[in-house]
Each structure stands twice: as structure tokens, then as C-alpha cells.
Amino acid sequence: MKRIFLCIFIAAAINSRADTPQAQIAARAGLDQHLNAQVPLDLTFRDEHGHAVRLGDYFGSKPVILALAYYECPNLCTLVLNGVLQTAQDLRFDAGKDYQIVVVSFDPRERPALAAAKKQIYTQRYGRPHSADGWHFLTGTEPAIAQLANAVGYHYAWDAATRQFAHPSAIMIMSPTGKVSRYFPGIEYPPRDVRLALLEASNNQIGSLADRVFLLCFHYNPSTGRYGLLISRIMQIAGTGTALLLCGYVVVMIRRERPAAT
To answer: Which of the four pLDDT bands, split at 50, 70 and 90, describes residue 32?
Structure first.
């Protein structure tokens, strides 16, 4: 009987991780796919030079790759932007000529100087003529950021203890009219699929739902100074699976001890 209670205690202890403050913050981050949703094109942001711009300035005639990231993110945002860069380099289409890349920081404290530094890095690495006309890095106020993020179903949460955001990894393919045409979760975006998605979006076609599994960026252990990439759904399944395995082990041990007692 004691071992049965021990089994219940172990399962409860493992599942209690979901009740920690950091786990609660992470639970607020995620990605809802709002296919065909219209983003508000009248939202105002600041470009890399500090000039006020409308989101709609980057729409109208070409499809758009939209990425939400914050420029001082210690890990996942850089991987997302690197993934966009790799795909853009592999595409026969040219950013600026055939489509636009728009990156919007969801940290309202970040300023155009950070955006300018990021743009310089990625346009230099992209290396194609007139690449500056195809890559745009924006900053904005909290209300404008929130409206854009809500429109595309991108959820993030600030953790004051670690001074970092919990957020998903994904890019969105947008039509020239500003509607969500396709989602690409993760940090790698197959060039062939992105090319087809850009062609669909340029014709104002809406793609299908993407894989629901996405990476979640969050810093779980501030005492160790280590950062990690978490897949929230897999973590939940793994925690439950571990509890069941431990319970099964306890049950087996109980059965083995019964003949000895008799």
C-alpha cells in the first residue's frame, strides 16, 4: 500500500512541473493558425532608419514572408532568421523584386538601431543586388505589435524573472493584400515549399494548415544560465510517460515481493 501511495506521489510530482511560474508563462505562448486572416495594414511601426512606416507599405503588389522575432533573443529568433536567410538564398526568386521579407520585433523596448544592425547582417549575408529593398526590420509600440500578433495567431509572454520572452517559432506567408496564406512552423523552411507558397499567395490563394508541432523558446532554469529549445506538446507527453513508467516499475516491484512475504 505504501508503494501505491509512492507511485501516486511520483506522478503528482512530475505533473506539478506544469504549475511552476515558468511553465505557466510558457503555456501562454503558442501559435494559432489564422489562415485567410487579414492583418491590419494601417498599423504604424518604425523602420531601420527610425522613420514611421505603415505595415501596408510592404504589401500591395508582392507576397510577403512575415517573421515575428525580437532582436536580442538569445537563441531561437536567430535560428528563425537564419532559416529565412537559408531559404531565401536557395530560392530563385529575389527578395525585393519577387517578394518582401518583413521582420517585426515583438519587444516594444527595442529601437531602430537594433533593427538596423540586424538588417545589415542579413542583407550582407544574403548578398544579392538591391537586397536592402527586400529585407525590412521593424520596431513598434506594444499596441501595434499586439494587434499584428493577434491577427496572425502568434502568442508570446514576458518572464520578468529571466528577462526573456517565451514564444513559438514560425514564419507566415502573406498575400499582397495582407492575408495569411500559409504557416511554416519551426526553424527550417523547405525552399520548394516556400516557393509554391509564395506563388499561391501572389494569386491570393490560401494554403492548408501546417504541422501543429512548433518549437517553443524559453529559459527554464535561471540558476544554471542555460538556455533550451522546448517542444511544449512533447514535454507534456514525456512527463506523463515518465510518470507511467515509474508507476509500472513500482507495481512490478510489489508483485516480486509478494512471494517472498509468503
So the answer is: very high
Type of residue found at 231: I
User: For residue 106, what is the domain's CATH number?
Assistant: 3.40.30.10
CA 11 to chain centre: 30
Q: Which helix (H) or strand (E) holds 76?
A: helix 76-90
Do 115 and 178 lie in one domain? The reply is: yes
Apex CA 216: angle with CA 211 and CA 218, to 5°?
180
Note whether 29 and 166 are within 8 A (CB).
yes
What is the residue range of 249's domain?
Answer: 2-20+231-261
Q: How far is CA 120 from the centre of its chain?
A: 23
Residues 77 and 204 in one domain: yes
Instruction: Name the pTM for this structure.
Output: 0.76
Least confident of 80-84, 214-218, 219-223: 219-223
Closest residue by Cα to residue 66 from 119, 106, 103, 116 = 103
Mapping DSSP onto H, E and C, the string for 13-46 reads HHHHHHHCHHHHHHHCCEECCCCCCECCCCCEEE
